[in-house]
């Protein structure tokens, strides 16, 4: 499955959120990651994130598609993600 | 088509970027918008954004799918978007 993840979390929890996201996904820009995961990896990612965030304050949204083929990505302006980031 | 838009733009250009995004899309959280657009609306949105940003510094990434049915959205923790935001 293809996953786009955006987070809006308190500064003191950002390092743990970032570390978890980097383990599974590619950084797109600012508070956004994306990547291809198995269903099991996606469950592990969300399970870990749920144990890290304060659900009354932090918010993480995932958009998922069954396949990366279903998603087109376009960049206006500068490309911030590194070379491994191309879909 | 379904559009997820994330922006990373200089503070002085954020108001114009936000105004343009709000005209076409729903706010998800922080620097993220999403919504359903026609191809013509998507072209108009990207055309306006290209005229607003400094392409050597600012970056806007769009992820698009042919239909909202192809995308599942999940929220961990707090829901930040307002009621009109549900897919």
From TrEMBL, chains A, B:
Cofactors required: Mg(2+)
InterPro entries: CRISPR_associated_Cas2, Virulence_VapD/CRISPR_Cas2
Keyword list, A-Z: Antiviral defense, Endonuclease, Hydrolase, Magnesium, Metal-binding, Nuclease
Pfam families with a match to the protein in the record: CRISPR_Cas2
SUPFAM superfamilies: TTP0101/SSO1404-like
Listed GO biological process terms: defense response to virus; maintenance of CRISPR repeat elements
Gene3D superfamilies, sorted: 3.30.70.240
Gene Ontology MF terms: hydrolase activity; metal ion binding; RNA endonuclease activity
Top-level taxon of origin: Bacteria
Binding-site residues for Mg(2+), renumbered to this chain: 8
Record has Nuclease as a keyword: yes
CDD domains: Cas2_I_II_III (cd09725)
EC number(s) per entry: 3.1.-.-
Subunit details: Homodimer, forms a heterotetramer with a Cas1 homodimer.
Family classification: Belongs to the CRISPR-associated endoribonuclease Cas2 protein family.
Record function comment: CRISPR (clustered regularly interspaced short palindromic repeat), is an adaptive immune system that provides protection against mobile genetic elements (viruses, transposable elements and conjugative plasmids). CRISPR clusters contain sequences complementary to antecedent mobile elements and target invading nucleic acids. CRISPR clusters are transcribed and processed into CRISPR RNA (crRNA). Functions as a ssRNA-specific endoribonuclease. Involved in the integration of spacer DNA into the CRISPR cassette.
Annotated protein name in UniProt: CRISPR-associated endoribonuclease Cas2
Organism: Kitasatospora xanthocidica
